[in-house]
Amino acid sequence: MGDAPRSTVRFRGRPLSLPRGATLVQALVRGRLPILQRSIRYHRPRAPSCGTGACSQCLVRVNGRPNVRACLYRPATDDVIRTENAWPSPEFDLFGALDAVFPRGLDTVHGFRRPAVFAPLYHRVIRRLAGFGRMADTPGPTPPPGRTVPTDALVVGAGPSGRAAAQHLASAGRSTVLVDRGSTGDPLPGVTAYDTTTVVFLPPPLSGGERPFRAIAVRDGGEALRLAARTVVVATGGYDGPLLFPGNDRPGVMTAEGALAFTPPGGDPPFRRALLVGGGPRAAELLDAAGAHIEAVVAPTQIAPTVVGRASALGIPLYPRTLLLAAKGRHRLRSVLLRRRGEGAPFSLEVDAVVLAHRRLPQPQLFFQAGARMAWRSAGGAYFPVLTDGATSVPGLFACGTAVGHPDRADAAASGVAAADAALGRTGAPAGGPTLVPDGPPHELEGYYRELLDGARRRGKWVLCPCEDVLLREVETASRGGYRGIEVIKRFTGIGTGLCQGRYCLPDALLLLAILEGRPPSDVGYITQRPPVVPVPLGALAELPDAPEAA
Amino acid sequence: MNRPARGRYRVAIVGGGVVGLFTAYHLARAGAGPIVVVDRGFLSSGASGRNGGGVRQQWETAATVRLARESVAAWRRFGREFGFNIWFRPGGYLFLAGTRDELGRLAEVHRVVAGEGLPAELLDRDGVARHADGLSLDGVVGGTFLRSDGTLYPFPVLWGLSETLRSLGVELLYGVEATGLRLEDGRVTGLATAAGPIEAAAVVNAAGGWSAEFTRRAGLVAFNEARRHEILATEPLKPFLDPMVVRLSDGLYFSQTMRGEIVGGLTVPHPPGTAGGMSSSPEFLVRMARALTGLLPRVRGLGILRAWSGYYDENPDGLPSIGEDPRRPGLFHANGFGGHGFMLAPASTRRVAQAVLGEPTDLDPAQFHPGRFLDAHRAAPAEGLTLG
Question: What ipTM does this complex have?
Answer without folding.
Answer: 0.95
